[in-house]
Design brief:
By secondary structure, the chain is α+β, with helices and mostly antiparallel strands. The protein has one domain. It is 18% helix and 42% strand. The longest helix is centred in the N-terminal third of the chain and has 13 residues. The chain starts with 7 loop residues before the first helix and ends with a strand. The relative contact order is 0.22.
């Protein structure tokens, strides 16, 4: 089950970002599940179900009701994300949106999944390097961003509440940071 003491980035990125993310990235989180006014899927579609290889070492199993991350090579606990009021999946514009509520801040981390023609899945989220002022300004020209500071008064993340139209523009114009590419094994 989801451990409410850890944020999504601490859970998934703890295990995956060690391999895939630079520490200088700043994430954009959301006030509401994305996209707005799109119904949550009752089940995860068969189209993306299966077992996927992560970095040729670990496995991600996607079933109709959950995503299981088996972290064999990292020596960390496995993670299970079951569809619930804190884990919602939506589909819009050929993209699956994994919405995970972070209890500490009552904000949503959104991971985007797109199925590729070669049976791989690309997973990512909206982020940028802190020094990348061009991307920040580009995103701010599309939707309003609120800076959220951490306890040491430095930038923790940006908070957004885009309309569907703004989200569509973000998906077209902003550079989504590809977190991982998953290769289907079953």
């Amino acid at each position: 089950m989801i451990n409410p003491k850890n944020t999504l980035m601490k859970k998934i990125v703890l295990s995956i970002s060690l391999i895939y993310l630079l520490l200088s990235c700043t994430e954009i989180k959301f006030e509401q599940p994305q996209p707005k006014r799109i119904k949550n899927l009752e089940l995860i579609p068969e189209k993306i179900q299966g077992e996927y290889l992560l970095d040729k070492k670990d496995t991600i199993k996607i079933s109709s009701e959950q995503i299981l991350i088996l972290k064999d090579s990292l020596g960390l606990e496995d993670e299970v994300y079951k569809l619930s009021d804190v884990f919602k999946v939506r589909y819009w514009k050929k993209t699956y949106f994994l919405n995970i509520k972070e209890k500490e801040d009552s904000v949503w981390t959104v991971i985007f999944i797109q199925k590729n023609k070669n049976q791989t899945l690309s997973m990512g989220f909206l982020s940028f390097e802190e020094k990348d002022t061009e991307s920040i300004e580009k995103i701010k020209s599309i939707t309003k961003l609120k800076e959220v500071m951490n306890e040491s008064e430095s930038l923790d993340y940006y908070l957004a509440n885009p309309s569907r139209c703004e989200l569509k523009k973000l998906m077209k114009q902003a550079n989504f940071h590809e977190l991982i590419s998953l290769e289907k094994i079953k």
